[in-house]
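Lab notebook, bench 4. The sequencing result for the construct came back, and we need a structural model before the next group meeting so we can plan mutations. Quick request posted to the team channel:

Model the 3D structure of this chain.
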Amino acid sequence: MSVKQASEEITLPITGMSCASCVNRVEKALTKTEGVIGASVNLAAEKAKVEYDPAVCEPKDLVGVVEDAGYGAEVARTSFGVTGMSCASCVGRVEKALRKAPGVVDVGVNLAAEKTTVDYLPGASGVEDFGRIVEGAGYGVVRDEEEDSSGSGDAR
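Done. Here's the predicted structure in token form:
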């Protein structure tokens, strides 16, 4: 009897590919990554579908692999206020909850400013998801001026 490993699938928006050789380079880099079960890159859609073991690697690692191969992975950033945090443990709970959202690349929580910044892969999760996650962790969300921006991975 074999134990089936838990896997997740994510779509990475890839920038900078121009030919089949680029597709092969990105695919090869991803499939060689520890924890990656399979990867399929589509030049026309400029996307890579990656099946991976979240216990071994995470979206942040996959973005790094794409960048190390010489291409970009589109990463968006949003910031919003979080209320109800009073200590470092609160910050840790908010960060941990947000890191579990699909496609989250990085999370930064500033206790003094009561502000959270999330870098994520567009299409995997979004601003509304992050608000629900923070509220589910027991904190409030201030949705005044949400700033979303897309970049080529340099938003981190």
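The first helix runs from residue 20 to 31.
Will bring this to the meeting.
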